[in-house]
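FYI - complex with fructose -6-phosphate, inputs then prediction.
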Amino acid sequence: MCGIVGYLGKNQAQNILLDGLKRLEYRGYDSAGLTVYNGSEFKTLKVKGKVAELAKLLSQQKISGTIGIAHTRWATHGEPSERNAHPHSDCQGEVFVVHNGIVENYKALKQELEKEGHKFSSETDTEVIAHLVEKFIAAGLNLESAVKKSLHLIKGTYALLIMAKIEPDKIIAARLSSPLRIGVGPDQFIIASDPSAILNYTQQLITLDDKEVAVIDQQGYHISALDGNGSVDKEIEKIEWDMTAIEKGGFDHFMLKEIFEQPETVSNSLRGRLIDQQGLAALGGLKEVETELRRIKRINLVACGTAYHACLVGEYMLEEYAGIPTEVCVASEFRYRKPILDPQTDVIIVVSQSGETADTLAAVKEAKEKDVLTLGIVNVIGSTIARETDAGVYNHAGPEIGVASTKVFISQLVVLALLTLFLGRQRQMSLVTGGRIAEELRKIPGYINQILEQNEKISQMAKDYGQFKDFFYLGRKYNFPVALEGALKLKEISYVHSEGIAAGELKHGPLAMIEKDLPSVFICPQDSVYDKNLSNMEEIKARQGKIIAIATSGDTEIAKIADEVIYIPKTLEMLTPMLAVVPLQLFAYHFANQRGLDVDKPRNLAKSVTVE
Ligand code: F6R
């Protein structure tokens, strides 16, 4: 995720900015940059890649000056490149902006500004802010008023630092739904999106709240509401945090942090993409292929591991709601299978967090050789798969650092649900059905929060089941892939044998293994296959098998059969995987953590699998 640092004081800004950027590296990023004012002019340096590259550049061409802003970028609009790295500037190179968040209406604003003669030099949403500020300064406003006026036009989220030639000794800071803190004194201010960039210098912190704007200069700071001019009194807090704890947001591991981020991840993946009243999904990345997609008669979903499990859920969604025959294939098998593809009616959709997985990329190449339309559902912007596919949809889940995928799995499910809406509404899906899905998707973040409240209970359960060496995970229909995913999460971080099974297959073999030492995790919400699942649970019970059930809130029947029950809120059947997977992630996490294992970096595994 992007990171922001600003400095204003008596020391050389570049050293403190660089140190701050280094401390934000753990968040993941793809490019970095800074702007420093040396008393007579602004100097900007940017690099694609690591902060170390920026440091190298700075060691060759020192930028002196005691005021500056800096940024690490995680691409959302436009590929990772020097051109798209922050700080962004206006036409004259007199306004400088670093930004975390997304300007959702940037396209409309950009068109308007271009009509007025503004020239853009990046593909980012952020650059519109610099041009808006330029425009209002040209109209006679001072810097603070020009920033405030610009922010009134912006829809979306932001943490912002802005400097400008008109008042070069000031930094303006503003926030809306993206964190920003001001470190105060002695004799200096360090402003950052994350306290880890500040605490080395001061423990006195002010937290900006939404729709607050701070003007900072050598004399001090003044904070006002975006909609007014009077001062807002802010408390200075003393923060005594352990630095490593901060990087992980206070969680013991990135995996746990990422599990807890999931309500926000869902909101980020949905942002700007649902037109609720019309029951439609607006997927900008598919605009160019919208007409081609109308003639598609078969979808081929291809991916590996967790992303493959998301595809299996997608298959149910797309067939049931979009009415398009859908096949799913693991990428490592796809090209060896000699897939029969028709360029007129087939589409290949690959799903990949990293966008670099060798097998998934090979599937894209295979499809291209056969002239078949390829789409990507990818998290890392500008990654190879994102570039190689004809069109696609980004997850916008932010960087995932834990090797075991959690929040990106949920965001893959969200994007597949959006795609189902998109393709379904192109076909026979009614406005009412589309509207219902949209309405329910909006509730998912709140529902996940309710499940996360059961973390302590799940942790205790992981302790109680800590001695077992084998687990079955069972589910049907939409939740069969969730069983596979739950089993994968447990085995990859705890090294304990676990197997995901379609519950209907139990009698065809696996039932032979059931006995008191083999517990089953059963995903059994009140859906269209509920009764069938109950029968399977009875079969396990009759053979002394222990059962942990994931069930719908209020289901008292299930507690009579299962040994343990974790409840999830009721939602549409197609969306239950977004909820049912959360307790399974938590169970796997606590199970492995209680064994003292390295949860974020399981043995033998890598985050990005670039070899076959
Ligand atoms: C498991 C996990 C892997 C990945 C798989 C594909 O937790 O993360 O199974 O899902 O290696 O990776 P991407 O999505 O980067 O193509």
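The pocket of fructose -6-phosphate is lined by residues 304-307, 352-354, 357, 360, 404-405, 488, 492, 608-609 (CB under 6 Å). The longest strand covers residues 31-37.
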